[in-house]
């Protein structure tokens, strides 16, 4: 995971908002023209008369008022309605009317008024039709231009970092939200103290650390604890993900780095958090493919910036990675990330605490045994546990429960571990039988070996990619495993294969993964753990292929002859496991059959149900 190679992030011109603006301009245009045409068009068009008709109406005494405005005549008739007419431009009104035979006496009864042509109306009449489109087009162009300009600015702002200032904000995280990680917390509290009271330390001649590197597997809370520092420290906390340093254009990373450090320095005392630093901090000169140069330059710039801090620059760089193994040694040199904090996967107590934290905000039914859930989740990271609590709540909601029950969480464990149940997958009765014997074989071999981990669950319901599964968990938290336990593991792994072989005189592809795992484990016993006859020696130097970020090449540092011996030893481990599984299953064939029968009927057996089946048979324990 977490491999970012010359990430191609390109800021496109904001075409979408651009076309949205054009749309708006058009809508506005239509609206404006509608308003104007409504304003300019009188609701009722007055009757239009010819001059002859006007003369007739005057003679008939039907005209009360006559207004002259340039060439336009507006008549107010005695019945209250209005009418309009046009006269010649040059001739005077009275002249025209008398020419048309208007009786002067009749004309005297009409109130004639001459208005100067209204300047405003006149000009508006001319300007609006001609100017409006120009104005509208102008506005559209202006908007387009502005858009284009910000686009160009964005194109040129590559060199600026998208560094964020975390102020805690709404979702302020504090150390209370982080379970376990005691050492990390202590270390970080000290860092915050440094920033607040540097004098206390410098008076004694202590140097303020420059960088703290948080290292740990994914999901162990590195980003979370960094956010908690932001929430607790009361100093400006800037964060950026290292992958954001690297863009499509070469040189951007370096200038962004410079920018990010400059911003942090200006705000000092401050903390600068660089998340997923392995994205740029990989060992230089060892990569392959493109984008590497850019990363190198960015990394160099980070080194330069950190060296450039003088005694009283109160900026502490916090960085996180889950690949400390691939980091460039220069980053780890004193004066750079000289403090290293390791975040481990949570142990039992921490898992319980994490579960409790994430239970907050969920409606829980009846008292919940978080310890029980914690016991069943060895190897889970904080993120897995958070996910588990969420999945449990979703299960409960799907069942229309008012509160989340313990069994919802227990069920969610397997979902998080193996993927969702696939009840819909149709399996034939024959396949179901094979699976039942296979899983029964694993469980039975495990149960009959001295010192092996107890079986917690056996199931033949397929989940994710597996057809069925047997879950065994160590009783207590263990950090070391012994050779005897590995031998038990190997025998148990082959239990499924053996059961199929004994019962059906045939084997299926269902065992392929078991065989692969068993072979890999046996090889590790020989080449890494020194548990074989070849003695305490490691064989093969595993090198990291930087570009792919995972074990790719194992360099052989031993001879052909030793290689053959290694193969022999691996083979003998497998043989031994095979014989153990065979012995156990042949001796207890009846028990195997019983387990398989119950599995076919119930599909899933909890640990206690499984051991209840064994009880009447008085299973004899044996050594692997
Ligand atoms: P990382 O950065 O180490 O990969 P994160 O900090 O992103 O992991 O952790 C992912 C999530 O897992 C967090 O948001 C939090 O919900 C949960 N989590 C991980 N560790 C803890 C912890 N120690 N206490 C509480 N929650 C945790
Ligand atoms: Mg993270
Ligand atoms: Zn199996």
Give the DSSP E fraction (strand runs of 2 or more residues): 5-15%
Rg (C-alpha, Å): 42 Å
Alpha-carbon distance between the two ends = 37 Å
In round numbers, the mean pLDDT is 80
**Tally of contiguous helical segments:** 21
> Given the helix and strand composition, which structural class is it?
alpha/beta
The stretches of 5 or more residues where confidence is low (pLDDT under 50) are 1-18, 153-158, 543-551
Bound molecules: adenosine-5'-diphosphate, magnesium ion, zinc ion
Helix content: 40-55%
Strand order of the largest sheet: 6-8-9-10-7-11
Largest sheet: 6 strands, mixed
Task: Work out the number of β strands.
Answer: 16
What is the general shape? elongated
Summarize the structure in words.
By secondary structure, the protein is an alpha/beta fold. It contains 21 helices and 16 strands. It is 49% helix and 13% strand. Strands 6-8-9-10-7-11 form a six-stranded mixed sheet, with helices on both faces. Strands 1-4-3-2-5 form a five-stranded mixed sheet, with helices on one face. The radius of gyration is 42 Å and the shape is elongated. It binds adenosine-5'-diphosphate (ADP), magnesium ion (MG) and zinc ion. Zinc ion is lined by residues 438, 442, 496, 511, 514.
């Amino acid at each position: 995971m977490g491999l970012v190679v010359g990430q191609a992030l390109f800021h496109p011109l904001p075409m979408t908002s651009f076309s949205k603006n054009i749309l708006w301009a058009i809508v506005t245009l239509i609206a404006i023209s509608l308003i104007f045409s409504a304003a300019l068009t009188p609701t009722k068009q007055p009757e239009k008369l010819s001059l002859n008709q006007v003369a007739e109406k005057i003679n008939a005494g039907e005209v009360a008022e006559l207004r002259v405005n340039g060439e336009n005549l507006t008549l107010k008739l005695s019945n209250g309605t209005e009418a309009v007419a046009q006269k010649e431009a040059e001739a005077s009104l009275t002249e025209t009317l008398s020419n048309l035979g208007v009786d002067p006496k009749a004309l005297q009864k009409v109130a004639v008024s001459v208005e100067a042509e209204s300047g405003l109306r006149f000009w508006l009449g001319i300007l609006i039709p001609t100017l409006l489109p120009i104005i509208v087009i102008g506005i559209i162009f202006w908007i387009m231009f502005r858009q284009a300009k910000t686009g160009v600015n964005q194109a040129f702002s590559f060199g600026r970092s998208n560094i964020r200032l975390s102020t805690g904000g709404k979702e302020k995280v504090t150390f209370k939200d982080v379970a376990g990680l005691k050492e990390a917390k202590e270390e970080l509290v000290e860092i915050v103290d440094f920033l607040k009271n540097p004098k206390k330390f410098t008076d004694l001649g202590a140097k303020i650390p420059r960088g703290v590197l948080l290292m740990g597997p994914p999901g162990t809370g590195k980003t979370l604890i960094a956010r908690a520092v932001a929430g607790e420290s009361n100093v400006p906390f800037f964060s950026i993900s290292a992958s954001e340093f690297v863009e499509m254009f070469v040189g951007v990373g370096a200038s962004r780095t410079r920018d990010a450090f400059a911003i942090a320095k200006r705000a000092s005392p401050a903390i600068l958090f660089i998340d997923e630093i392995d994205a740029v901090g990989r060992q230089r000169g060892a990569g392959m493919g493109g984008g590497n140069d850019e990363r190198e330059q960015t990394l160099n710039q980070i080194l330069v910036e950190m060296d450039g801090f003088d005694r009283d620059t109160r900026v502490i760089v916090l960085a996180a990675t889950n690949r400390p193994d691939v980091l460039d040694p220069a980053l780890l040199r004193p004066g750079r990330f000289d403090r290293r904090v390791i975040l481990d996967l949570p142990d039992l107590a921490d898992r319980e605490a994490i579960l409790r934290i994430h239970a907050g905000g969920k409606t829980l039914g009846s008292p919940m045994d978080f310890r029980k859930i914690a016991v069943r989740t060895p190897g889970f990271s904080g993120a897995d546990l958070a996910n588990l609590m969420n999945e449990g709540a979703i299960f409960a909601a799907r069942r229309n429960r008012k509160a989340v029950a313990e069994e919802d969480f227990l069920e969610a464990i397997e979902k998080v571990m193996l993927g969702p149940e696939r009840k819909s997958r149709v399996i034939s009765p024959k396949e179901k039988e094979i699976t039942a014997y296979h899983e029964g074989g694993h469980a039975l071999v495990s149960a009959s070996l001295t010192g092996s981990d107890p079986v917690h669950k056996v199931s033949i319901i397929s989940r994710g990619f597996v057809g069925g599964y047997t879950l065994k968990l160590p009783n207590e938290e263990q950090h070391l495993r012994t050779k005897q336990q590995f031998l038990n593991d190997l025998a148990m792994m082959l239990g499924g294969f053996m059961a199929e072989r004994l019962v059906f005189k045939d084997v299926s592809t269902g065992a392929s993964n078991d065989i692969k795992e068993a072979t890999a484990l046996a090889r590790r016993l020989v080449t890494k753990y020194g548990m074989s006859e070849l003695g305490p020696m490691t064989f093969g130097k595993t090198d990291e292929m930087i570009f792919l970020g995972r074990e790719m090449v194992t360099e052989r540092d031993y001879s052909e002859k030793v290689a053959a011996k290694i193969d022999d030893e691996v083979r003998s481990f497998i043989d031994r496991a095979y014989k153990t599984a065979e012995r156990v299953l042949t001796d207890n064939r009846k028990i195997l059959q019983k387990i398989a029968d119950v599995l076919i009927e119930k599909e899933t057996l909890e640990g206690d149900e499984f051991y209840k089946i064994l009880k009447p048979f008085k299973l004899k324990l044996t050594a692997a």
